[in-house]
Structure formats: structure tokens, C-alpha cells
Amino acid sequence: MTAGSAARDTTAAPSRFAAVIEQPEVRTELGRLSCTEWGWGTLREIQLRALKWHRERCTFELVMETTQGRYSTIAKVFDDQRSHILPTMDAIRRAGFGTEADFAIPRPLAYFPAWRVLVEEKVPGPSARETILHGSAAERAAAAARCGQWLARFHAVAPRLGKPAAMEREFTRFATWRNQIAGFGEPLAGKCESLFRRLQAAAPPLSPVDARAGHGSYIPEHVILSDRRTVTIDLDECDVADPSRDVAWFVVSVQRLALTQLGSLQARDDVVGSFLRAYEASSGPRTAVHVPFYRMLECLHRARRDLVKRVPPVAAWAEIMLDEGLRLAPRPQVEPDARAPRAVPEPAAPECPPAPGRA
């Protein structure tokens, strides 16, 4: 493939990401690995297709035509250095998430630090997102159960790599979200302020005993149902965190699919129930005890995205998310009203004088 044809295939993605993989040095390195490391033969041609992109990264399908066949991979280009991802994925696979396991992650193939490019196996099969949206009730329940079981196993046995998430430091960022939402006026500002205060009051500490390996972005589109295997992708944000966070992310992501694709936040409550039951049945007792807090937090996050990241903003969705966060919030303790009349105790009955002769 020529550099020009690559650009035509990726017109919707930022051109600078495609240009990285189009460099002759990257192609040379791919050809070397195809022959010496992967056993795929001599590289003849590559094809690029942009799949998803953000401001700081882009994901491509990278198809390599060789003398031995056609091999599909995933290539991710990052703005910042991500050299930790490949050893992290290797460690997780060694912990029981390898190619032959029922619960797995993709095989990492290479990381090129000079260009900040990660290449990994492309896992065949539909994502859980597609089944959750379009499957029958039985198919949805089975997909949700597999997602819950994968996450429970990940929390139980995956190595704890990376820095622990520090909730107390994160509240500065959450306050920024609150301020951004408040800029859209009432009723969003008042609801957001109430939700933020309840988050502050309910924030759980992160105990070293409770912390587990964290996926960081566990959502239905990151779970591939590949025949009998359940394979989770996008390990870019792995860390050490309260397991409740990953559980909450998945639940709110299902609700968001229901809201944005089906018109109601509750349209896939059956999926939420199946996922939570499977996770609880497969995990240890009291593994994820702070799910309501993290669901509240993700509701705030999604409300902010509806207003700040969407063009044009969708205030109706943002308000639904704030209402859901408030619904999940513990009721605030009601302080006694200083203006309310205080109850006056009844006076004690006078003591009777002793009877004559009994003094």
C-alpha cells in the first residue's frame, strides 16, 4: 500500500496518526517482525482502516498481506509514551488470560517506542455491545453474564500493576466537571451541585486490602464474544483501583446505550441485573461494596460529556444522568431545625413526705 492510499482510507481520522504508521521505518520494522518473530512470511502490503480516535490516540485495523496469507491486527498510535502496556498485557496473560483461556485478553505483538505504536492481535467476533443492543433476551442475559464473569476473574487473579487510583486527588478534576456543568444554568447547575456534595460525603477510602487490578474502561464495546472465549480489549488504562469502579463503569455504559440507542435509561435493566448477579456469584464476598458511589461519579462524568464534548450539547441526556446520580445517592442526614420548638420535659412529681412513724 502506498502512503497516498493509506491517507484515503483514513480521511476521518487525524492525519497525523495515520502518517506515523505510513513511515517507511515502521513498515520496515513490521516486515522484520513478520518474518523473524511472528512467522507470517515476507510482508508484501499493508492496509489501514481507522476504527476509533481521540485527541491523544487513534486505533486502526492493520491488515498485513504476506507470502503466507493475510493477517489482521490492531495498531494503536499514542501521543505519549505507553511502553508499559506490552509488559502489562504479557503479565496478565501469564496470570491465566492467555490465548487458550475462556477469559482472555489479546496477544500483544509489539511496541515501537520510537513511534509510540502498539500492535496487538485482532480478536474475531462481535462485541458485547452489539448483543446487548440487538440480541434476544436470552442472548443479552448470556452476554451480560460472560462480562460479569470475566471481570470477577480479572479482579481475583490479575496482577496489580500501575499506580493506585487516589480518590482524594481526583476530586479537583471532579470539581472542574461540576463547574463546567454549572455554566449551563438551571436546573443542571443545582442538580450538579447537589450530586457533587453527596459524592464528597460518600467518597470511600482506597484500602490496600480492597484494591485490585483495574481495567480502567470496562464497557460493553471492549468485550469480544469470540465463540466460547470472552476476550476483553483496550488494556491501555490498567491500574490498581477499587473493583467497584469497573463494575460501575459497565453498568452506566449499559444504561447509556439504552438511553442513546433505545430512548430510555431503563431499557436494558435486564442486562444490568444479569451482569451484577454474575459478577457477585463469581467474585469473593464484599469484593465491590462501593458500586453506588462509582455509579454516581460516572453519572456526573457522562452528564459533563453530554454538555462539553457533544456538538451540539444534549442537555436532556445530561439532566437524566444527574437525576440518576441523585437517585443513587444516600439520603443526606437532616440536621435539626434551630427554629423548631424544642420539647419541654414534664416536671418531676414532688416527693411524698414519709408516713408518720417511718422516718
How would you describe this structure to a colleague?
With 359 residues, this protein is an alpha+beta fold. The chain folds into 2 domains: 3-121, Phosphorylase Kinase, domain 1 (2-Layer Sandwich), CATH 3.30.200; 128-328, Aminoglycoside phosphotransferase (APH), C-terminal lobe (Aminoglycoside 3'-phosphotransferase, Chain: A, domain 2). The chain has helices spanning 3-9, 15-22, 24-36, 85-97, 128-134, 137-157, 167-182, 188-202, 243-262, 269-282, 291-308, 315-328; strands spanning 43-53, 57-66, 69-78, 103-104, 108-112, 117-121, 212-214, 223-226, 229-232, 239-241. The strands form 3 sheets. A 5-stranded antiparallel β-sheet has the order 1-2-3-6-5. It has a 3-stranded mixed β-sheet with strand order 4-9-8. Strand 2 (57-66) and strand 3 (69-78) form a beta hairpin. Helix 6 runs parallel beside helix 10, helix 7 (167-182) packs antiparallel against helix 8 (188-202) and helix 7 runs parallel beside helix 11. The longest helix is centred in the middle third of the chain and has 21 residues, at 137-157. The chain is globular, with a radius of gyration of 27 Å. Residues 1-10 and 335-359 have low confidence and may be disordered.
CA gyration radius, whole angstroms:
27 Å
Number of extended strands: 10
Fourth-tier CATH superfamily name of the largest domain:
Aminoglycoside phosphotransferase (APH), C-terminal lobe
| DSSP summary: helix tally | 12
Low-confidence stretches: 1-10, 335-359
Largest sheet: 5 strands, antiparallel
SS content category? alpha+beta
Instruction: State the share of residues found in helices, binned by percent.
Output: 40-55%
The SSE string, one letter per element, is: HHHEEEHEEEHHHHEEEEHHHH
pLDDT averaged over residues = 89
**Distance, first to last CA:** 116 Å
The best one-word shape is globular
Level-1 CATH class name of the largest domain = Alpha Beta
- The CATH architecture of the largest domain comes to Alpha-Beta Complex
The portion of residues forming beta strands comes to 15-25%
What fold name goes in the CATH topology slot of the largest domain?
A: Aminoglycoside 3'-phosphotransferase, Chain: A, domain 2
